[in-house]
Design a protein that fits this description.
Immunoglobulin-like; 2 helices; globular; DUF5067 domain-containing protein; signal; Immunoprotect_excell_Ig-like; DUF5067
Length: about 170
């Protein structure tokens, strides 16, 4: 009697497993067309976005120069000066929330640096529409060879990499 119950239980469990797997198989193929429809829709949407003309940035940035300094560890760094302008008719924006920068020296991207020589608060200062603020950001450097500075609008980061501003700066 005990063997019959075990066999019946095993058969029932096997049957349930077969039904569950069959359900997964049909659910997967039934949802497969939806997935490809979603993929087609996403691809079409992506193509449409690429075909749209480039959106104008809501901010302007000029690179106003740079000066050498030392970071808190005594290592060389460069402080880059920017003018950040909110040209939108929207809410206030800050340099940090609206842009991202890339600074290269000898083909290698420079890391951000911490120094007393830069006004770090200026990066977070909100600027209302139609107004500007002077901004400073520090970057670690290896020596006094030239740096390349590029500033991009965050809102256009997926529309290609057209910088708002770019400049090669001599540190020597």
């Amino acid at each position: 009697m005990r063997i019959k119950r075990t066999i019946i239980g095993a058969c029932a469990a096997s049957g349930a497993l077969v039904l569950a797997l069959a359900g997964c198989g049909s659910g997967g193929s039934a949802s497969s067309p939806k997935s490809s429809d979603s993929s087609s829709s996403a691809k079409q949407e992506q193509t449409t976005k690429k075909a749209d003309p480039k959106k104008e940035a809501s901010v302007k940035v000029t690179i106003d120069g740079a000066q050498m300094a030392t970071d808190y560890n005594g290592n060389p760094c460069v402080v880059v000066n920017y003018t950040f302008t909110n040209v939108s008719n929207k809410e206030a924006q800050s340099f940090t929330s609206s842009t991202y920068t890339e600074v290269y020296q000898n083909g290698v991207q420079c890391d951000a640096a911490a120094t007393d020589a830069a006004d770090g608060n200026s990066l977070l200062t909100n600027v209302q529409a139609g107004h500007s603020v002077q901004v400073q950001e520090a970057y670690s450097v290896k020596d006094t060879s030239d740096i390349e500075v590029k500033v991009y609008a965050v809102e256009n980061m997926f529309d290609g990499k057209t910088p708002l501003a770019e400049q090669k700066i001599s540190l020597s």
